[in-house]
Amino acid sequence: MNTNLVHIVKQIIADNGEAVLNDPKRLRAFFSDLAKDEPKPLRIAFGRCVEAGAYTALKDAPDAAERTERKAAIARRLRDEHGLDLTLCGEALDVLEAVLPEEKKETTVRTENTTEGQARDGELLSEETGKLQKIITEKDDQLARSARDIERLTEEKQKIKKGRTTAVVLGIIAV
């Protein structure tokens, strides 16, 4: 989580009240001054979360489990409607959650808790596993080639030693 952004949002709330988290235009104005050094994608995702009413949705959640479900739903909606990355949405929602009143905070964060998300995760895992398997195969081939090269060089070294020994012996005989 971007702790610097948490501090900036807390400062904005302290100076202007928490109502600013329900007013995307005012928040953008404050961000342009106070959060200009923060990553732009995170600022955009945070603004989209505010536009989606995430602060109120998280604040009004009756318990941590419901808040987690709401975060996942908001993240999915922002992904579907605005093409935002789920991880980025999750980070923005974490910032919002971090500035909730103390009794509303939660330490565990989930951005996916659906069969759709699990299926997509499984597909990504299979794809990454395939890529890793290909890399392992390539490295095994490189290792086998290196082993053959070492064996060939060892044989050449032995031949050179025998040739030197023969040359030394012939040199001694010639003297």
Sheet bearing the most strands, described? none
Q: Summarize the helix and strand pattern as letters.
A: HHHHHHH
Compute the average pLDDT. 82
Backbone shape = elongated
Regions with little confidence, pLDDT below 50 for 5+ residues? 104-112
Q: What gyration radius follows from the Cα positions, in whole Å?
A: 31 Å
Estimated structural class:
mainly alpha
List the helices and strands and how they pair.
Blueprint: H1 3-16, H2 24-34, H3 40-51, H4 54-59, H5 64-82, H6 86-98, H7 115-174
Helix pairs in contact: 2-3, 3-6, 5-6
Question: What would the keywords be for this entry?
Answer:
175 residues; mainly alpha; 7 helices
Outline the structure in words:
With 175 residues, this protein is mainly α. The protein has helices spanning 3-16, 24-34, 40-51, 54-59, 64-82, 86-98, 115-174.
Quick synopsis:
With 175 residues, the chain is mostly helical. It has seven helices and no strands.
